[in-house]
Design goal:
Elements (H helix, E strand, L loop, with lengths): L3 E2 L34 H8 L4 E6 L5 H14 L8 E5 L2 H19 L6 H10 L4 E4 H11 L11 E2 L2 H22 L2 H10 L6 H13 L6 H14 L6 H28 L9 H20 L1 H9 L11 H6 L2 H24 L5 H36 L1 E2 L3 H10 L2 H10 L2 E4 L7 H10 L5 E5 L14 H9 L8 E6 L1 E2 L4 H14 L16 E2 L11 E7 L39 H27 L4 E3 L4 E3 L6 E5 L6 H10 L4 E3 L9 H14 L4 H9 L7 H10 L5 H11 L7 H21 L2 H12 L1 H7 L3 H22 L3 H10 L20 E5 H4 L2 E8 L15 E4 L3 E4 L1 E3 L4 E3 L2 H26 L2 E11 L2 H8 L5 H5 L4 H11 L9 E6 H8 E2 L7 H8 L6 H4 L26 E3 H9 L11 E5 L15 H18 L10 H17 L5 H6 L3 H7 L2 H8 L2 E14 L2 E15 L2 E8 L8 H24 L3 E8 L4 E5 L11
Parallel strand pairs: 2-8, 2-9, 3-4, 3-7, 5-6, 7-8, 10-11, 12-23, 12-24, 15-17, 15-18, 16-17, 18-23, 26-29, 30-31
Antiparallel strand pairs: 1-18, 13-14, 19-20, 21-22, 25-27, 27-28, 28-29, 29-30, 31-32
């Protein structure tokens, strides 16, 4: 099953393991009586006893199957009752799945000959109530049994979100009221420094931020107190944070030295700037001395930086200059500038204070830190009392209460005696609180920990991967050790070639400082299954150039130029608040990201279209098979922003798709548009919401148009730019300004309705007048999307009935509520009758596998917001506030803040790399990676240096790591990635073109006259739309005569009814749909018309799949023989029905091969058959789609040639003329579409008439054509 988690069969192995024989594991039959052959490492994990085991289980290694088998053998062979085991999982769903697996394994064991039926049946009965649960659930059980130890009401419950929010607000109010009444000097200074101008909301946010963070500590109060004591007792040079900072800088300097040694090699190149070599070597010595000073302490480093001077580069002139490669010279200078800039910023930001001044600076932090600590402790006490009075607890209370209870040695001893074995699954996601609970009930040798630190990706849930790492460093791999490591590295999921490429990448990039784990022979993946070799690469990276590289300072804004901007790892001074004349960076980034995501989605769709043509190998079936849509997943780091764009684009290609949104749920674009429309009608200055509405079906503006609006008025708000653009008439030649005026007038009208209509009625009005409901129904999963919008209407009605509030109040309720109430979950696994592509977050994909994986949007910048703010927190380095000078009314970023900021950045980058590991280990057969950058030349220059440690630590997106490996590393053939570069202009040219005329779509509607489409045609079309006049004051009654989607063949029907040819001056888009790889079997029909259609389809099928190369340079008799052989091959493959094959005779096709054009076709560099496409007419909401299939086209040195086959039964002297008239428009459209797609001119259009047994040249209007004899 594609997209499935590892599902056990009756022998306890995962589905991935129950695969064809490989070098590691034999075939596992379904008969439970036949013993499974485990790998030696798996067997050790199952059978080892009297030891604490840390099972480091790599992706796809069958860890769950091993865990279940160990439990089964403990029960069946060691006769350990299941009630004497505590089996801890990470989620409730995982606990349920684990219980099911154990029950299935026990049931299978019970059926084996000689099994102890009485014992196993007893364990099977008790499995339903066994301790198989999350640690949170175990703590809940423990607290309810020993509530009296912590003075809890036995009827306590976990409070709901509404109640807890109310209690939190009251607790904060009580805490601050008491503090204001006491008004201590520390509190006074703290409030002066950190409160807002009018309210205490900022202070409350700081307090709750700290309160939430310390819940990951076993004793939150003690941790807080220790932070204050550290500032009071220690001088700065003795502080943990300063030692950590010096160590991190030392590691960066080491990486910089590695990079600069490469610069030394460039100087020594035969064409390199040898004259620069002394200065470069002096730099290396300087960096080494600086590293030594970091080890000596802050004072030594301060002195070294104060006295540091760089040697000047020796000039290169005359004959020497002629021998030097300018590119090498520039590269050396550029890299040296990077070193100098890094050192300059190092001194400016980290070592700007003398040791004495630093101590004084740290002492200024003490009052604020002390006040913060006291406030949070008071807040916790007040919150605790309020919860106790209400008889409720919150999520974190259970674990802390459990720790308090287990401090009673008698109770802890009782649980130690009870549980003979403790199992913790997904141990890499534990934290210190959970570790403390487990330690309290564990014996010396009965803990089984299983997980993969390389897949620790839940730091936002307070997971602490260092717990796993500490055991990796302290445990032994020796057999018989009390604390033992067992590595499960055999991967039973993925193609070996793909595994080797993934290994190659992580061996270069992942290490202790980046990833927090060494990717050595213990960590690498080893193939567990064998696959047949394929000719195409199993892993490729496609880099998409979305703009022109800029020079100078512009390059600093490049995400791909992150490597050169080493100084970005050193914070600059705090930026001022944007003024009215400054641009909003969030808005500018959203505009750019929106356009890049759309372009990248087209690339991904085209790649999907290509990969679906190629069979995949299914290890569960042991053979190749045709890929289905369900086999494809698109993974993104965070799909919220881009997923809907991908849905829209992929849908244009005819690819069925579902996407994850907020909280791993569908969040449709039309729902976002509706919510944003409500917001801008309430507050017109919300630029990001305005942007969403403009780009949505409500506005119908394209990303290029939005960019043009911003370019016209780059300063100020985007709303101001829209107003200015509409008033000054810019863009009149494209109708843009008039469309903006119309849009703004619609907003004004709706704002008037909002002032007096009931909210429910008003929201319903918007749904109808914007056309959002119709748009939703026309999209994939249309009814689901429409139902989401209807839920919004119902919610508005309920709000009106309950509160009788206004639009502002309704928006506030929506923002504070659960957005998922409007959504529907995207399934992790699909039923047999579901077939669509899924878009999901990497986090949600963990534990799943997919035959074909696309990792997209890798150029999106990492989110480093946690590294900024007035307050920074770190579990080891403590609390850091900004430094305030109350007398001078100034503040600055404190050095502890800079230290914690750097630590958080490093840990965040490590987690991003581990997230990437999860993404790159989901694929079974193929993995495609895509990413975009605006500065491709700079990116390629940086990537060309390979995976230097210093550069890897400066990465700003996933693409920076993978690009450096794919484009810069000289990997072995087995470990090399495929690498492709796509230029934006090429992709845009392939997708869209703007025509010269500004004729509106309504012009074409007018041509339709009173004609109505044939009902047989209408049944094949999407629902028609009513198209309005430019000013929207009237509706053309004839609009329904033009459907929203029409085939090229249907256009012939319009012309036959008297319509004029298509207006080629309209805006068109060429959008490819996936090509058909199978043709349905046509059964004999009684109807002559049906038989004719079937014969025509059979004729096309033969020409689509026939091997043309077999027909070259042969006699007519030999060609006829080949034709008959090819027909039978297609019958065997299921592509052609035998009856239709028998009816298809050679004479009808003989003329196709006996013509000079066929020889040109054979010799062509490019040959495509059955190429499906869609032409989009119009723009915005007013568009129609024309779909068609080009039978064949080829390209040789003379140009592009379009070919179409026809089986029309026409005869007589006018037959050729009739066919030319009948199909000239159709072939003209094909030619025009191909020209816009490829950017090359169509040289000729030809039609092969089977009934006439001849080729017919179709003259394209306005062109000179050469007739082939």
């Amino acid at each position: 099953m594609s997209g499935s988690a590892e599902t056990p069969n009756s022998n306890g192995l995962s589905g991935a393991q129950a695969s064809p024989r490989s070098a590691v594991q034999s075939v596992v039959p379904s008969n439970p009586r036949i013993e499974v052959k485990w790998t030696p490492d798996q067997d050790s994990a199952i059978r080892s006893r009297n030891a604490n085991l840390l099972v480091s289980a790599a992706a796809g290694s069958g860890k769950t199957a091993v865990l279940v088998e160990r439990i089964l053998q403990l029960i069946a062979e060691d006769r350990i009752p299941i009630r004497n085991m505590l089996i801890v999982t990470f989620t409730n769903a995982a606990a349920g799945e684990m219980r099911t697996r154990i029950i299935r394994a026990l049931s299978a064991k019970l059926r084996e000959p000689g099994a102890d039926a009485l014992w196993l049946r007893e364990q099977l009965e008790r499995a339903g109530s066994a301790y198989i649960m999350t640690l949170h659930a175990f703590c809940n059980d423990l607290v309810r049994k020993h509530f009296y130890k912590v003075d809890m009401d036995p009827a306590f419950r976990v409070g709901d979100a509404t109640l807890l929010k109310s209690l939190r607000e009251e607790a904060a109010m009580l805490t601050l009221e008491a503090a204001y009444e006491a008004m201590s000097p520390d509190f006074s200074q703290f409030i002066e420094a950190f409160s807002g101008n009018r309210t205490d909301e900022k202070i409350e946010a700081l307090l709750w931020n700290v309160h939430g963070f310390i819940q990951s500590q076993p004793d939150p109060k003690a941790w807080l107190v220790s932070q204050t004591e550290a500032l009071e007792v220690h001088e700065a040079q003795d502080s943990l944070w300063l030692k950590a900072l010096l160590q991190m800088i030392s590691e960066e300097l080491e990486g910089l030295m590695e990079s600069h040694r490469e610069t030394e090699q460039l100087c020594m190149d035969p064409c390199g700037p040898m004259a620069y070599l002394p200065a470069i070597r002096s730099d290396l010595e300087l960096l080494e001395n600086l590293m030594d000073s970091m080890e000596a302490g802050y004072a030594a480093a301060y002195e070294s930086l104060a006295d540091l001077k760089f040697d000047k580069l020796k000039p290169i002139r005359g004959a020497e200059a002629e021998q030097v490669d300018p590119a090498l010279k520039d590269a050396v200078q550029e890299r040296r500038d990077l070193v100098k800039d890094y050192i300059k910023r190092l001194g400016k930001h980290f070592f700007s204070q003398s040791p004495d001044a630093l101590d004084q600076s740290i002492r200024r932090l003490l009052p604020g830190t002390r006040a913060l600590s006291e406030l949070v402790i008071s807040l916790e006490e007040n919150y605790g009392l309020l919860k106790k009075e209400a008889g409720v607890i919150d999520f974190y209370d259970l674990e802390h209460l459990a720790i308090d209870i287990l401090k009673d040695e008698e109770i802890a001893g009782m649980y130690r005696d009870k549980f003979d074995h403790l199992f913790l699954d997904e141990y890499q996601d534990s934290n210190l609180v959970q570790e403390t609970v487990v330690r309290a009930i564990a014996r010396e040798d009965n803990v089984f920990l299983v997980g993969d630190v390389k897949q620790s990706i839940y730091k936002f849930r307070l997971a602490d991967p260092t717990l796993f790492m500490d055991k990796l460093n302290s445990y032994s791999r020796e057999e018989g050790a009390r604390n033992r490591i067992i590595d499960l590295s055999a991967n039973f999921r993925t193609r070996p070639e793909l595994i080797e490429r993934v290994n190659g990448f992580f061996e270069k990039v992942m290490n202790l400082s980046l990833g927090e784990v060494v990717y050595d022979h213990h960590a690498r993946l080893n193939p567990g299954l064998s696959f047949p070799e394929e000719a195409f690469p199993s892993l490729s990276l496609t880099l998409i150039d979305t703009g022109k590289a800029k020079s100078g300072s512009d390059a600093e804004t490049s995400q791909a130029g992150a490597f050169e901007a080493a100084s970005e790892s050193i914070p600059a001074a705090a930026a001022s608040e944007p003024g009215a004349d400054e641009t909003d960076p969030d808005l500018e980034e959203a505009l750019s990201y929106m356009k890049n995501a759309e372009l990248e989605a087209h690339v991904v769709a085209d790649l999907i279209k290509g990969t679906l043509k190629m069979d995949i190998y299914d290890p569960k079936l042991g053979r190749h098979r045709k890929p289905a849509f369900r086999d494809v997943v698109i993974l993104m780091r965070s799909p919220k922003a881009a997923a809907e764009t991908y849905v829209q684009v992929l849908s244009q290609y005819g690819l069925p798709v579902r996407a994850d949104g907020v909280g791993a749920r569908i969040s449709s674009f039309e729902m976002q548009a509706a919510l944003s429309l409500l917001k801008i009608l309430d507050n017109s200055r919300l630029d990001l919401d305005l942007l969403t509405v403009l780009r949505s079906p409500i506005g119908g503006f394209g990303t290029d148009e939005l960019a043009a609006i911003r370019a016209f008025s780059p300063l100020g708000t985007f709303r101001d730019a829209v107003t200015l653009f509409s008033e000054e008439g810019s863009g009149a030649e494209t109708g843009l300004s008039s469309r903006l005026k119309d849009f703004l007038s619609r907003l004004e009208v709706w704002s008037g309705y909002a002032a007096y209509e009931r909210v429910g009625d008003f929201v319903w009005r918007l749904m109808i007048e914007t056309g959002l409901l119709d748009y939703a129904r026309a999209m994939p999963e249309g009814e689901l999307r429409a139902n989401q919008l209807m839920k919004l209407v119902e919610r508005a009605g309920d709000y009106e009935a309950a509160l009788r509030g206004d639009l502002s109040g309704f928006i506030k309720v929506l923002e504070e509520g659960d957005a998922s109430e409007f959504s529907a979950e995207v399934p992790k696994t699909l039923s047999e009758d579901e077939d669509f592509i899924r878009i999901m977050s990497i986090h949600k994909s963990k534990g799943l596998e997919f035959p074909i994986v696309f990792l997209a949007d890798t150029g999106k910048k990492f989110n480093m917001r946690d590294t900024y703010g007035d307050l920074l927190l770190h579990k080891d380095l403590g609390i850091a506030l900004k430094e305030i000078d109350a007398e001078k009314r100034t503040y600055r970023t404190s050095l502890p803040q800079l230290a914690i900021q750097k630590a958080i950045e490093r840990e965040a980058l490590s987690e991003e790399l581990r997230i990437l590991y999860v993404a790159l280990t989901r694929a079974v057969d193929r993995l495609y990676v895509t990413g975009s950058t605006k500065f491709v030349d700079k990116a390629l220059s940086n990537y060309g240096r390979g995976c230097l440690a210093f550069a890897m630590r400066q990465a700003k997106c996933l693409l920076d790591w993978m690009g450096a490996y794919a484009a810069g590393e000289e990997a072995s053939e087995a470990a090399r990635w495929g690498f492709n570069l796509i230029r934006a202009e090429d992709q845009i040219r392939a997708q869209t073109f703007e025509a010269a005329s500004d004729r509106a779509l309504d012009d074409l509607l007018a041509q339709a006259g009173d004609h109505v489409l044939d009902t047989a045609v209408l049944r094949r079309l999407d629902s028609g739309r009513t198209l309005k006049e430019a000013h929207g004051d009237q509706t053309d009654a004839r609009a329904s005569a033009l459907p929203s989607k029409v085939s090229v063949s249907d256009l012939k029907t319009l012309e036959a009814l008297g319509q004029t040819p298509l207006n080629r001056a309209m805006t068109l888009e060429v959008l490819y749909k996936p090509e058909l790889t199978e043709t349905p079997r046509f059964m004999a029909q009684e109807s002559r018309a049906a038989m004719g259609a079937a014969r025509g389809s059979a004729f096309h099928t033969v020409l689509q799949f026939m091997d043309f190369s077999k027909m070259g340079q042969r006699t007519p008799a030999e060609r006829e023989s080949v034709f008959n052989e090819e027909k039978q091959r297609l019958v065997r493959e299921g592509r052609l029905d035998q009856t239709l094959a028998d009816d298809l005779e050679w004479p009808a096709l003989a003329g196709f091969f006996d013509h000079p054009l066929f020889q040109r076709l054979l010799d062509a560099q490019v040959l495509e058959r059955e190429k499906a496409f869609v032409l989009k007419r119009g723009s915005g909401r007013e568009f129609s789609l024309i779909q068609g299939v080009v039978d064949l086209y080829f390209e040789d040195e003379q140009g592009l040639v379009v070919v179409d086959y026809k089986t029309d039964r026409v005869s007589g002297p006018e037959a050729v003329t009739l066919l030319k008239q009948r199909y000239s428009t159709q072939l003209g459209l094909y030619a025009e579409a191909l020209e816009k797609l490829t950017g090359r001119r169509v040289e000729a259009a030809w039609l092969y008439a089977a009934h006439l047994k001849q080729w017919i040249n179709i003259v394209l209007t306005g062109r000179e054509k050469e007739e082939l004899s």
